[in-house]
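Lay summary. Proteins are chains of building blocks that fold into shapes, and those shapes determine what they do. In this project we predict the shape from the chain. Here is one chain we studied, written as its sequence of building blocks.
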Amino acid sequence: MARAAAIAFAGEGADVAINYLPAEEPDAREESVFTKGLAKQLVKQGIRVNAVAPGPIWTPLQVTGGQSPQKIPNFGRDTPMGRSGQPAELAAIYVLLASNEDSYSTGQVYGAVGGRGGP
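And here is the predicted shape, written in a compact code that computers can read:
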């Protein structure tokens, strides 16, 4: 399974947001199954579980080992949008998941993949 980060403690009525990096990993289906399964287990306790599966997102980590130097000039250009995303373009998804506006969603995987049709 690909790397994921989740909130370590979730009490009754809490929300869990899982971040998968990156969405184009070959085992994205397993991540979706994990999110949906965990959501089903925790929903009776009032805990919502949703995930974010971003595509190629440009961060300072890309130039410090996140990508090989040969890949950096074309990072994200293979998306239909022709560019990598910016962290600020994901912010609204995380704000939505942390708000009460999304209180009826659980087991969902939100994708921001530059038009690839993912996650």
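What the prediction tells us: The CA atoms of residues 41 and 47 lie 9 Å apart.
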